[in-house]
Amino acid sequence: MSAPEFAVECIDLTKTYDRQPVLRGVSLRVKAGQIVALLGPSGCGKTTTLRMIAGFETPDGGSVLIDGRVVADARSSQPAEVRRVGMVFQEYALFPHLNVYENVAFGLRGNQKAARVAEMLTLVGLGGLDKRMPHELSGGQQQRVALARALAPAPRVLLLDEPFSNLDTALRAQVRTEISAILRQAGITAILVTHDQEEALSLADEVAVMFEGQVAQVAEPQTLYRQPTSRAVAAFVGEANFLPAKAHGMTARCALGDLTLDEHASGAVDVLLRPEQLQLVTSNDGAGRVLWREFYGHTQRIGVSYGDLALVARADAIERYTPGQTVNVVVRGRARAFGG
């Protein structure tokens, strides 16, 4: 018998707390071996969805399937321990009185326990640190111990709830890259909850954007960023410039001139231009004026006034822009229209 295509399926999940709907028909499918991010603002229902998959919450309606088998619906819910689901919590939840080996071994049984712990510590790059106590480890190392402990029982699905939020900015990027490599090497299905757009786009195979208890769009990161299906998704996933325009087929006319659209539209629309699509060309008689500049070393953000418009451009770090400088704005690539 062949394995099911989807490791996890959520079908029309609903949940209400104190008469306040938290989930309003959430549906999501995660293929085996895939990393999926649940992305959305606080209170959108992403953590509740994760907890239903884990078995910590019971749906009021709908169902959760793991490997094609119903593990929860409105009538019954299997306990978390029998679902073969691993969990990495935001605060890591390591046992402070146990060393690294004992933390990873917790819950394992049988005479292969030592070998399994050694295998997991090697996988997460902590071989040789098995005798260390949690307080002797850096935040990134603690994160990897938590991951090793979750992977040790060979779960079918790994769930991660805001796993990088306790790390500082510089360490977060490094650990994110390390965790991504570990998950892909392990070949495990993983679902990640985050409110960080960069985290979701860089780590996941697919991203599910959630608003107000519903899934607004599920897509690969590049598709989600370039082809959002709504203005709300466009505004939440990355930075966005919206310009009023008049669309005619595959062209829209706006204050920046005639733009090529990625899809047919007509009538009054708002066109989406990402900051990196705006190329600034310095000119003494330019129609735009630099308002501000933020320099990041590898890139820079520039605020530009263009008539009645306030635009944000993003460029590499080579050109220098100064407030008051006049520029022309050249659009690169296709625009996306909403409302036409």
The chain-level structural class is alpha+beta
Going across the major beta sheet, what is the strand order?
6-7-8-3-9-10
Bulk shape: globular
Average pLDDT metric: 94
Percent of residues in beta strands: 35-45%
Radius of gyration equals 24 Å
Tally of extended strands? 18
Number of helices: 8
Which runs of at least 5 residues are low in confidence (pLDDT < 50)?
none
Q: Largest beta sheet, briefly?
A: 6 strands, mixed
Q: What distance separates the N and C termini?
A: 48 Å
Q: Element order, helices and strands?
A: EEEHEEEHHHEHEHEEHHEEEEEEEE
The percent range for helix content is: 10-25%
Q: Would you write up a description of this structure?
A:
There is one protein chain. The longest helix has 18 residues, at 169-186. Helices cover 22% and strands 40% of the residues. It is α+β, with helices and mostly antiparallel strands and 340 residues long. A hairpin with a 2-residue loop joins β11 (241-254) and β12 (257-273). Strands 6-7-8-3-9-10 form a 6-stranded mixed sheet, sandwiched between helices. A 5-stranded antiparallel sheet has the order 13-17-14-15-16, with no helix packed on it. Strands 2-1-4-5 form a 4-stranded antiparallel sheet, covered by helices on one side.
Would you summarize the structure shown here?
Helices cover 22% and strands 40% of the residues.
What is the topological layout?
Elements: E1 6-17, E2 20-31, E3 35-39, H1 46-54, E4 61-66, E5 69-73, E6 85-88, H2 100-105, H3 113-123, H4 139-151, E7 157-161, H5 169-186, E8 189-194, H6 197-203, E9 206-211, E10 214-219, H7 221-226, H8 231-236, E11 241-254, E12 257-273, E13 278-282, E14 288-295, E15 299-306, E16 309-316, E17 326-331, E18 336-338
Parallel strand pairs: 3-8, 3-9, 6-7, 7-8
Antiparallel strand pairs: 1-2, 1-4, 4-5, 9-10, 11-12, 12-18, 13-17, 14-15, 14-17, 15-16
